[in-house]
Specification:
Largest sheet: 8 strands, parallel, barrel
Number of strands: 9
Shape: globular
Strand order of the largest sheet: 1-2-3-4-5-6-7-9
Order of helices and strands: EHEHEHEHHEHEHEHHHEHEH
Radius of gyration: 20 Å
Number of domains: 1
CATH architecture: Alpha-Beta Barrel
């Protein structure tokens, strides 16, 4: 079974403020560590009142300080918004504070709208420099040379692992060429998943960081005691996507009994297209869905989004998902044992 990790959205709900969202994220990280998740990431989003992870490196320090062993990282930093030098300083500092626990996933999209991009003092054309910026950032995280006049202090020598994130073929090609691990965002852009993975694996060139391709697949998973209850919990995310299409992003909303009363046929079609690979249901349904996804994609790791409104219900969802992963791993180990005996 592929490793399981978490993408924490740091959702601000109608019942929690930003501080509550940040503390809930830290609480989830502590539980995830106990349940055996490999890593927990947060993403950079700006000008969204329902997401409290804009200052991503600060949020990561909050999560890492509340845990001991789980890897903590950005999924991701939208590099065109920043100077590679400053990101090296930030994540190098995190690496000094929390050795061997920090990941740095890098995306090319702005993570916001064009007006906010101007407020960030960045040009939309900055995305064109993404490959060069990745290499520059990597160089600042590497050990400093004897005559290197500009160092990212205290980042030099930390060699924080870099990941390339993507929802299209561009990121797949870049990750392969640079020999970096690749994470595909099929939790909101599933259409090109299989094609991007094939491109990544075909184009992969071994590097100092990675000797063979390593692919992570993002997926929405919501688990509950029954399929019906899981489908009800999933309406929170479905409403969030609907609001995005309407241009009315807001706070996370509690689940409703009938999503058909909320969205129009066109909004439903749009949301279902973006959420097409979601796995929603009872523990058995989730287990079957995870098995099929790993078999289809050959993913080395699954990055789970479980966008559930109530914090306790969300914790229970992630706990059930972890249990399903262990069940799959146990079954696989049993199958191997039987094969050897045969």
């Amino acid at each position: 079974m592929a490793a399981l990790s978490i993408l924490e959205l740091v959702r601000v709900t109608e019942e929690t403020d930003a501080r509550g969202a940040l503390d809930n994220a830290r609480d989830l990280a502590a539980h995830a560590e106990e349940w055996g998740y490999k890593r927990i990431w947060v993403a950079e989003h700006h000008n969204m009142i329902g997401i409290a992870s804009a200052a991503t490196s600060v949020v990561l320090a909050h999560l890492a300080a509340g845990t001991k062993t789980i890897r903590v990282g950005a999924g991701g930093i939208m590099l065109p918004n920043h100077s590679p030098y400053v990101i090296a300083e930030q994540f190098g500092t995190l690496a000094r504070l929390f050795p061997d626990r920090i990941d740095l996933g890098l995306g090319r999209a702005p993570g916001t709208d064009q007006m906010t991009l101007r407020a960030l003092r960045r040009s939309p054309e900055s995305a064109d420099q993404f490959p060069q910026d990745v290499l520059e950032l990597q160089a600042f995280l590497a050990p400093a040379g004897p005559n290197q006049r500009i160092q990212a202090v205290p980042a030099a020598g930390t060699e924080v692992p870099l990941w390339i994130l993507g929802s299209s073929n561009f990121g797949a090609m870049l990750a392969g060429e640079l020999g970096l691990p690749y994470a595909f965002a099929s939790h909101f852009a599933p259409e090109l998943l299989l094609q991007a993975l094939q491109i990544y694996r075909t184009r992969f060139k071994p590097s100092e960081q990675l000797s063979r391709p390593y692919a992570m697949v993002g997926v929405n998973v919501i688990a509950a005691e029954t399929d019906a209850e899981a489908r009800r919990l999933a309406t929170t995310q479905q409403m969030s996507f609907t609001n995005m299409f309407r241009g009315t992003r807001g706070l996370s909303q509690p689940p409703i009994d009938d999503i058909e009363t909320y969205w129009s046929p066109m909004e439903k079609a749009q949301a279902q297209q973006m959420l097409a690979r979601s796995i929603i249901g009872s523990p058995e349904t989730v287990r079957t869905g995870l098995e099929r996804l790993v078999e289809e994609t050959g993913a080395d790791e699954l990055m789970i989004v479980s966008d559930v409104y109530d914090h306790r219900a969300r914790l229970r969802s992630f706990e059930m998902i972890a249990e399903a992963g262990r069940d799959i791993a146990g079954s696989a180990a049993g199958d191997i044992s039987l094969q050897r005996k045969a």
